[in-house]
Each structure stands twice: as structure tokens, then as C-alpha cells.
Hints:
By secondary structure, the protein is an alpha/beta fold. The protein has two domains: 1-57, 2,3-Dihydroxybiphenyl 1,2-Dioxygenase, domain 1 (Roll); 66-129, 2,3-Dihydroxybiphenyl 1,2-Dioxygenase, domain 1, CATH 3.10.180. The chain is 21% helix and 39% strand.
Amino acid sequence: MPSRLTPMIHVADVRATARWYESIGFTLSGANEPDGEMDWALLTLGGGRVMFNEGGGASAAERREVDLYVETERIDDLFAGLKDRVRVREEPHDTFYGMREFIIRDLNGFWITFGEPVPAERRAGEKQG
């Protein structure tokens, strides 16, 4: 039985993508750079991992084939630190399924949603009010 799932996303420029993800808090944990060109990278954030590989293309689509979902803490503080440096798709909001989330787009147009559970007392208050 698998113990970990790590998405691999194909992008046009692996080095630029790795640098962008590092700029928002990911750590470059591995790379392949034959002849000085980065053609694969592994980035981590907490216990999460994502790989980027060469071969992807640019897209003007509103939504790409893959979204990333990052469970985190202190969502509003995180948004405040990122909002002026990234393309914001949706500002922080509470969802019907009990998460507080915001969505940004990376330099390739992929959506990254950051979310944390809405405190139970706030969810209970919304149901009564």
C-alpha cells in the first residue's frame, strides 16, 4: 500500500518554477541539472512534496489541469504576507465544508489553495445565526 503521494507537474521552466515556489516558503529538496539546465526539482513544504519536470507548456486557461491544496495554520497571516507578491485568485473566505481558504496562481497559472479548518465555535455560530 502506498505511503505517500507526490504530484509531478510538467512546466516550461523548472528553474523559474522552483525559484517561485521557494519565494513563497517551499524548500528546494532535490534537483537534476545536467549541463546546468534544471530539468527536474523536488520542493517541500512541511510534510508536503511536489515535483516539477520539464516538458510542460504555457497556458492562458483560467484553470489548469492540476490544483495544489496546502493545509496550513494562521491562514490570514499567511495571506497578508503573500498577497502583494503573488497573483491572488480568491481572498480568504470560509467554505461550506468548514475550511478558511485563499487561492493564488503560480507563475505557470496553476492554482494553489491554502486552507485551515474554521474553528468549531465559529462554524456553530454561523449555523445558529
